[in-house]
Design brief:
The complex is a heterodimer of chains A (about 325) and B (about 350).
Chain A (H helix, E strand, L loop, with lengths): L1 H4 L3 H29 L6 H17 L6 H29 L4 H30 L17 E3 L2 E3 L1 H23 L1 H11 L1 H6 L4 H23 L10 H15 L5 H26 L6 H15 L21
Antiparallel strand pairs in A: 1-2
Chain B lengths: L5 H28 L7 H23 L12 H10 L4 H30 L4 H21 L22 H27 L2 H11 L1 H6 L4 H27 L9 H14 L4 H25 L6 H19 L13 H11 L4
The chains are: A mainly alpha (about 325), B mainly alpha (about 350).
Chain lengths: ~325, ~350
């Protein structure tokens, strides 16, 4: 019935589901890393890109199309980048008592540096292989099944992201709720000072959090290569609006609300643009405007107080008197 | 290095320096002094550039009796017509410059003011991020909006001094204009920073809650600062569009914002002279690279990428090694401070 009103609605709903899984994989680590380390990490976009490019270089330079191998290597590479960022930049700045804004600016610097470093690496790889790494096509993996069940097409990307998202959510739940390390992570998130006093090795826990967060996003980047038809070194940047909006919906605190945010943004973007495209002829590439509108609405209606140092101005009804 | 054109180099460097210094001075006012993490400087810069480009190309064609619905300025025929018609009427060119500057200031400033409504009530992370993403949205919009040339942009924008025959004199006159506007920006920001408003801004930056408790209307003050800063960024955009005589969406990527951030961090957070110094250093390196790159021939790695990696690392390294920058922030000039220094030096009567 909906098919008659909005052509392609079925595809839009399928896409919404697919994007929900991606946003989940990309945004959960953002929330987790912020609440444990109190660093707004704009270099988060690099994790997606580097994850994707680990898979691309394995495929394009070494000729391997084994996703499980790419996932393991990407986890290690992006996790290592996250730990390096923390050890050499964020921790020294925090120790000196720099404001969160300064640390955020340093993550901006890292973002730019990593992004163009990747461009340089693609240049070198292009020189040796004469392949175009700046726009790389979809990779078909040998070890991921695909097919259709009950009329629903399960692409490799859908299978991989479904498995990855379920595993990541389950493992994160087990890690945070059932293990000692997870309890220590939550303790550091709630009150770093108290956690340290009670004997939790804070810097180790923070580094471990960065490794896990960076690694998970890198895995998402690998899976992205089986979904997107043209992967560029801008892939992480093009998703940063959505990923951060999802994180902000979760207030950068709640993992559950982050998950809900992922579904919300994916639906608004995919189904919303299908409707607008049908009735108003809006170009499909205007999808980010819907996300931006959601972001602004979230900030006005539910300002994430506390996170990122916001002040409760909502309660300041009138201007102050002199 | 044969035939190195020193005068040409100086003119191009100083013009670029003037444009970027306007951006860095106002960003320093917003971020260094008021503590607004403005990661979206490029939005207001881009709006200014597109306003002047659209206004100039369309009006020159229309006032010369060309039907723009048939020959729009982004069309190849429009471009040819523009290069012919652009130098006919000096008065028109100057008039367009002045109106572009005024409209760009008002429009960019108003956009900055409007964007503050939702975001300045939340923390710096959200401010930075929202402004950053509005930059990306502007780019997506421009890439698909046909009247401003979509992804091709607008070309052959007649400069205000198009009617001057000698190209060297033309460039020098334009440099004069840029430096004049830079001086205006410096005077305005200097006055603001050393005014009671400037002291309030530093109070906001250092402790927002304390400023709020002392009865300062924090959102309104921040909105005012963003209006002024964005307005001047719009002016810088106008100057850029006339300098390059073309605009396209890919000129306004987030990296431009970080370039300006690198300038103020290098020069010194909260120090206006530092911003000038930072802008001078970074644009100088930029120009040198532009002059040297063709001599290198084809290299494996594009020098452009290397340049951006250096800018990114520069931000990180300066923050790690010397967070106050080359020229650290100084106390605000007040009569009381002067008296204190005099007394300390034992010069008081």
């Amino acid at each position: 019935m909906g098919e008659r009103l909005i052509p392609g609605i079925q595809q839009a709903v399928m896409n919404a589901f697919q994007y929900t899984l991606f946003y989940l994989i990309f945004s959960l680590p953002l929330t987790l890393s912020y609440r444990t380390t109190k660093v707004i990490n704009f270099a988060h976009a690099n994790f997606i890109t580097y994850g994707a490019y680990v898979a691309i270089f394995l495929h394009g330079v070494l000729g391997l199309n084994n996703m499980s191998l790419a996932v393991v290597i990407a986890f290690l590479v992006t996790g290592a980048i996250a730990v390096i960022n923390n050890v050499f930049v964020f921790t020294p700045l925090q120790k000196r008592g720099s404001s969160p804004a300064i640390i955020m600016i340093s993550s901006m610097g890292l973002w730019i540096a990593y992004k163009y470093l990747l461009y340089m690496i693609t240049d070198v790889a292009h020189y040796y292989t004469t392949k175009n790494f700046v726009s790389y096509g979809r990779i078909t993996y040998s070890d991921v099944p695909r097919g259709s069940i009950g009329g629903i097409e399960f692409s490799q990307a859908l299978v991989a992201s479904l498995v990855a998202a379920l595993l990541i959510v389950a493992l994160l739940y087990l890690l945070l709720e059932k293990t000692k390390i997870g309890r220590a992570m939550r303790a550091v998130a709630d009150n770093p000072l108290l956690a340290e006093i009670s004997g939790i090795p804070r810097s180790l826990i923070v580094n471990l959090t960065w490794l896990v967060c960076g690694g998970i996003v890198g895995i998402g980047g690998v899976i992205w290569t089986s979904f997107s038809g043209a992967i560029t070194p801008e892939v992480g940047d093009s998703m940063i609006l959505q990923v951060f909006t999802v994180g902000f919906i979760g207030g950068l605190i709640s993992l559950l609300r982050t998950g809900i945010g992922a579904a919300l943004i994916a639906t608004i973007e995919n189904v919303g643009i299908a409707i607008l495209n049908t009735y108003f002829g809006t170009p499909v590439s205007f999808r980010p405007f819907l996300t931006f509108a959601t972001l602004i609405t979230t900030l006005i209606a539910f300002p994430p107080l506390g996170a990122g140092g916001g002040l409760p101005y909502r309660f300041l009804r009138r201007g102050s008197k002199k | 290095m044969i035939g190195f054109d020193v005068v040409g180099f100086l003119i191009s460097w100083l013009t670029l320096f003037g444009i970027y210094a306007i951006l860095s001075l106002t960003l320093n006012l917003e971020s260094g002094t008021a503590g607004i993490t403005n990661f979206g400087k490029v939005v207001f810069y881009g709006v200014g550039a597109y306003i002047s480009a659209t206004l100039t190309t369309y009006l020159i064609l229309m006032l010369n009796g060309v039907d723009v619905s048939e020959t729009p300025p982004y069309d190849i025929r429009g471009v040819i017509l523009l290069s012919e018609l652009g130098k006919k009427n000096p008065l028109l060119n100057i008039g367009l410059l002045v109106s572009s500057l005024v409209i760009a200031f008002v429009m960019s400033g108003a956009l900055g003011y409007l964007l503050t409504y939702p975001i300045l009530r939340v923390g710096p992370a959200f401010v930075g991020f929202t402004l950053l993403s509005s930059g990306e949205l502007l780019r997506i919009f421009l890439q698909h909006y046909e009247p401003v040339g979509a992804s091709k942009g607008l070309m052959a924008i007649p400069t205000p001094f198009e009617w001057v025959a000698d190209s060297r004199v033309r460039e020098a006159a334009y440099l004069g204009l840029v430096l004049g506007l830079l001086a205006l920006t410096y005077v305005v920001t200097h006055k603001l920073v050393n005014s009671p408003l400037g002291r309030t801004l530093r109070a906001l930056r250092d402790d927002e809650i304390a400023a709020l408790c002392l009865g300062k209307h924090v959102p309104r003050i921040k909105a005012t600062v963003l209006f002024i800063g964005s307005g001047f960024a719009g002016i810088a955009g106008v100057l850029l569009s006339y300098y390059l005589t073309s605009v396209n969406p890919n000129m306004f990527v987030p990296a431009v914002t970080f370039n300006v951030w690198a300038m103020i961090i290098l020069g010194g957070f909260g120090n206006l002279r530092g911003s000038l110094l930072g802008a001078a250093v970074i644009t100088f390196v930029d120009r040198i690279l532009t002059f040297v790159t063709p001599q290198l021939g084809i290299t494996i790695i594009s020098p452009d990428y290397l340049r951006w990696v250096v800018v990114g690392l520069l931000i990180v390294v300066v923050l790690l090694v010397n967070p106050r920058g080359i020229l650290p922030e100084k106390p605000i000039k007040t009569p009381a401070l002067d008296v204190m220094w005099e007394e300390l030096r034992g010069e008081s009567k």
